Amino acid sequence: MSGIITMDDLTNEEIISILDDAERLLPVAEGRLHLPLLQGRILGNLFFEPSTRTRMSFETAMKRLGGGVVNLGDVKTSSVVKGETLFDTIQMVDGYTDIIAMRHPRQGAAQYAADSARVPILNGGDGAGHHPTQTMLDLFTIRRAHGTLENLNVVLAGDLRYGRTVHSLSHALTRFGCSVIFASPDTLRMPEEIIADLRANGAEVTETDDLLAQISGADVIYMTRIQKERFPDEDEYSKVAGAYKLHANDLDDANAEMIIMHPLPRVDEIHPSVDKTRHACYFQQAFNGVVTRMSLMCWLLSVPVPEDVEAAGGAL
Ligand code: CP
Predict the structure, then answer these.
(1) Is 103 designated active site?
(2) pLDDT on residue 2
(3) Phi and psi torsions of 70, nearest 5°
């Protein structure tokens, strides 16, 4: 069983079906309806790197659906510090759980885990590699705002070199015919192999370092944090820290329906003045992680989401 390691593990039809299920699960995610579709199932949360949203939204999603959660917890208090390998850790948790959400600093670690696990693995971020469940909640957010995933103009801005969210998202967006504009400082450009892959698949890709010039034509501006922890050298980080700082004053020419997204956490790339504008979407985006992960877990565990969730559910 492999799970979801990159967006290549899902067809466009599967993506749409999972997003449709997520739409129906909204009343459950919001705590308005009791629907224990995953009662008796256990999620293993294995986070070898810090996380707030991914870890907590997976946990919330499983609990809202009536299931249980076991956590590795702080790596420093686990047997990893005694030298236990990732392989051995996975063998244990595989036996304790029905599905595993995992984040690891090493690119490729989620695939490595999936290759030896019996239960499905959901990649919650592997180094600078992929973050497909983030992409699913991003797609859900974009579709809710624009009513479609097709043919939108999406600006991905900031640290495109180390930012795994934009690696996964750019692949998914271009599969739906979106144009992507990569706005970054020169040293943080999207990796060449990703750009080559997107273009080979017919995607329209533009690169620039001028974020502000892209605002008026954008349907989505997706900001990212400069990933300080992935820089080999602190001096290199200081050269690009604070490269982009979006302020409410920068949005005067934005189209009314344009949304600003960010996987969070933010540092200084979105000024708090943006929070009160009609464009700010990042806190709603973070909430959408719950409903999207509910839907993903149901799909992976082959538990159908009822067509009429209100009729199937009960009062809390
Ligand atoms: N978006 C995201 O991955 O956030 P966390 O690092 O808090 O999980």
Answers:
(1) yes
(2) 77
(3) -120, 140
Could you tell me the residue range of the domain that residue 68 belongs to?
3-131+288-315
N residues, the chain: 316
Q: Helix-strand-coil percent breakdown of the chain, rounded to 5?
A: 45, 15, 40
Distance of CA 145 to the CA centre of its chain: 17
205 with 266, same domain: the answer is yes
CA 143, 145, 151, 156 torsion: positive or negative? negative
Which residues, in sequence order, are CB contacts of 64 under 8 Å at separation 6+? 28, 29, 31, 290, 294
Q: Which of 45, 53, 225 to mutate to test the pocket of ligand 1 (most atoms within 8 A of CB)?
A: 53
What's the rounded Cα separation, in Å, for the pair 22 and 237? 38
Q: In the chain, which residues have pLDDT < 50?
A: none
Decide if 131 is catalytic.
Answer: yes
Q: How far does the centroid of ligand 1 lie from the alpha carbon of residue 265, in Å?
A: 7
CA distance 103 to 76: 15
Do 221 and 275 share a domain, yes or no? yes
Cα(197) to ligand 1 centroid in Å equals 26
Distance of CA 93 to the CA centre of its chain: 23
Could you tell me the two tokens for 266?
């933010």
List phi, psi (to 5°) of 240: -115, -10
Q: Are residues 206 and 249 in the same domain?
A: yes
